[in-house]
UniProtKB/TrEMBL annotation:
Comp. bias regions, Low complexity: 15-26
Keywords on record: Membrane, Transmembrane, Transmembrane helix
Protein name, UniProt field: DUF11 domain-containing protein
Annotated transmembrane regions: 75-95
UniProt-annotated stretches for the region Disordered: 1-38
Length: 644
């Protein structure tokens, strides 16, 4: 014990530290027992938790944590202060929000009818409001119209997009614009107009927008179309479809067209007025208010079994980009007709080929076979079969009628009960008839026989008993078209020093001495235009292509692999080479004979042939095959032609 009653502060601190170290020491000093315990010395065990706690406090981690804890407390306090500050700023912004622009305070409304007739003027009122406390320095109005919308001042002009600068808009101010348009479309069509305003707040470079859509329905078409078709027809029976178009608009409808979509098996015969494009588009032009146009279409449908076939006629305006396309559709009608089996099945085969069209490639006689069958459950009485020739490309004197009667005055053949057992035809009974005829050589006069074709009409008719016991006439018909393919004619020639090029060497050629030749190809085409025309031939390996072509505008190519020379002439009109000059090209080759070829007439150019696509008949046509050109093909006035 210190002799000083109040030791200095440093000593007291030192004593406390010593006491603490002794308290947490792993091997504390032994305690001296009081006198009443005698002289026995005892040790007191320290609990393990105390020693672990002491170790933890002595460790580096504990020291680090002890140093960080005050900073964490400071960070926590700073976070609380930041949250309080942010809340204050948010509260300030809330109370000062009247000085900011919010899109929620910008109003845009479009007022107009929910339905409108096509072809009539439609008026829309657009209202814009600024309910912010700040000025909008610029406001732009943008309107996007649906397809088919027209300008009210010019119905023929499309109206697809409209933009207008409306200027500034004061706080709590409003702007109103009235727009007019003429919508077009099918009755029942839903149309949408997209309206957008773009605005820029005061003292801001940013542009914001607000949108609104206006929807309406076309409740009446500007025209009506009444399509009349028979409810029932027989297969192969010619029938008529009428389309009546009437204007409902108060103004002129410009560039009106009608487009037809025919069902499968429909064979178009004729129409009034004549179709403007192909056989299914009619141009009606401008239709005044209350005016009417009528279209009549005739044709037939072939069907094996009873079926329903649907037509579709659409009425609209012509596209400004393509006169063959309907830009805006006003309405569509889709009538249906029931096609029944023909009373008598009828078909005609030419040279054994079925189908509606037969392509002839020559002038030889054509054999025709008529095949018929009674499809009715009752007898057919007094049946008659007739054939009528239509066209000028067949020879009337060449007709062989078989067992029928041929009348050259009407160009027809008739088979009836006078020459056949046609008095009573039982249900399901069938048979065949045949005849033949020849075509003229149409290539002799392409101007007269351009795109030559003819028709053969076959008709069978008779009488049957109906449900009331009365005789009813039954008729079936069939028409076959015969087209004559064009005739390509190819000529080839071999020249030396008389063609378009200056040739070298001598003729007849000499062994191991070079000689050049000029090859001339000429093409003629008779009765119909052709496309993708080409002439090909092969050069032997001992002949060299010299890349000389005249005229230079002609496309002549050479492939060294295989030695094929190809002349691509493309399109070739009818009549080329018949009454006018043929299509011609020249090219040059060289020949270096070998000693082994002495005494022979080597081939200079192999056999040549021309092919083309006949645009009238739709088939591939070929020319006559020209034989190879040899050294003997060059006329030398009777002199030697072999290699010397």
């Amino acid at each position: 014990m210190s002799s000083e009653p109040n030791p200095p502060e440093s000593e007291r601190s030192s004593n406390l530290e010593n006491l603490e170290n002794r308290l947490y020491s792993r091997t504390p000093p032994p305690l001296h027992p009081p006198a009443e315990f005698g002289k026995d010395e005892r040790h007191i065990r320290i609990a393990p938790g105390w020693t672990a706690e002491a170790e933890r406090k002595d460790s580096a981690v504990y020291g680090m944590v002890a140093r960080i804890m005050p900073w964490l407390k400071r960070l926590f306090v700073a976070s609380i202060l930041f949250m309080l500050g942010a809340g204050g700023v948010a509260l300030y912004g809330f109370w000062q929000g009247s000085n900011m622009v919010s899109s929620e305070n910008i109003s845009l409304s479009v007022l107009g009818p929910v339905a409108a007739p096509a072809g009539e003027e439609l008026i829309l009122d657009i209202n814009i409001g600024n309910y912010n406390s700040l000025l909008l320095e610029s406001v732009d109005l943008i309107v996007e119209y649906p397809e088919g919308t027209r300008q009210p001042t010019d119905v023929s002009a499309s109206l697809l997009r409209y933009r207008e600068a409306l200027g500034p808009l004061d706080p709590s101010g409003t702007l109103t614009r009235r727009l007019s348009l003429i919508p077009f479309g099918e009755e029942g069509d839903a149309k949408t107009i997209h309206v957008t305003i773009e605005y820029r707040p005061k003292d801001s470079n940013a542009i914001f927008s607000r949108k609104s859509d206006y929807e309406f329905v076309i409740n009446a078409a500007p025209v009506t179309a009444n399509v009349t078709v028979p409810k029932e027809i027989n297969s192969g029976q010619v029938f008529e479809v009428k389309v009546e178009v009437v204007s409902n608009a108060s103004s002129v409808i410009k560039n009106l067209i009608v487009k037809a979509e025919y069902p499968i098996g429909f064979q178009f015969s004729e129409s009034s007025p004549t179709a403007a494009f192909s056989k299914d588009i009619w141009y009606l032009g401008d239709l005044k208010a209350g005016a009417k146009r009528t279209i009549s279409v005739k044709g037939r449908i072939d069907a094996v079994e009873e079926e329903e076939r649907t037509f579709r006629f659409s009425v609209g305006t012509q596209s400004p980009k393509d006169e063959k396309v309907m830009g805006t559709v006003f309405l569509s009608e889709a009538p249906t007709v029931t096609v029944k089996r023909p009373f008598v099945s009828l078909d005609m085969l030419v040279n054994g080929e079925r189908g509606k069209t037969f392509i002839s490639k020559g002038t030889g006689p054509l054999r025709a076979d008529i095949v018929w069958q009674n499809n009715l459950p009752v007898k057919i009485a007094d049946m008659e079969v007739s054939v009528v020739f239509e066209g000028s490309i067949f020879s009337r004197t060449s007709v062989e009628q078989g067992t029928g009667f041929y009348d050259s005055n009407t160009s027809s053949i008739v088979w009836d009960k006078r020459t056949q057992n046609f008095g009573a035809i039982a249900p399901g009974q069938n048979g065949s008839l045949n005849f033949s005829f020849s075509l003229f050589p149409v290539a002799t006069d392409p101007s007269l026989y351009k795109n030559p074709s003819m028709l053969v009409h076959v008709t069978v008719k008779g009488k049957r008993l109906d449900e009331n016991g009365a005789y009813q006439e039954v008729v079936s018909s069939f028409t076959k078209e015969i087209r004559v393919a064009t005739s390509l004619a190819l000529s080839t020639d071999l020249l030396h020093s008389t063609g378009r090029f200056i040739d070298q060497g001598v003729v007849p050629p000499k062994a191991e001495a070079l000689t050049t030749y000029t090859v001339v190809w000429s093409l003629s085409n008779s009765s119909s235009g052709v496309a993708d025309t080409k002439v090909t031939a092969v050069l032997p390996p001992y002949v060299t292509w010299l890349s000389q072509v005249s005229p230079a505008s002609e496309s002549v190519t050479y492939n060294p692999i295989g030695g094929v020379v190809t002349w691509n002439t493309g399109n070739l009109d009818a009549g080329v080479g018949f009454g006018k000059a043929p299509r011609e090209v020249s090219f040059q080759v060289s020949f270096l004979p070998s000693i082994s070829q002495i005494g022979s007439t080597p081939v200079i150019v192999g056999e040549a042939t021309a092919t083309a696509d006949d645009r009238f008949t739709g088939i591939l046509v070929k020319s006559n095959v020209r034989p190879p050109l040899t050294t003997a093909s060059l006329s030398l006035g009777g002199g030697p032609v072999t290699v010397q």
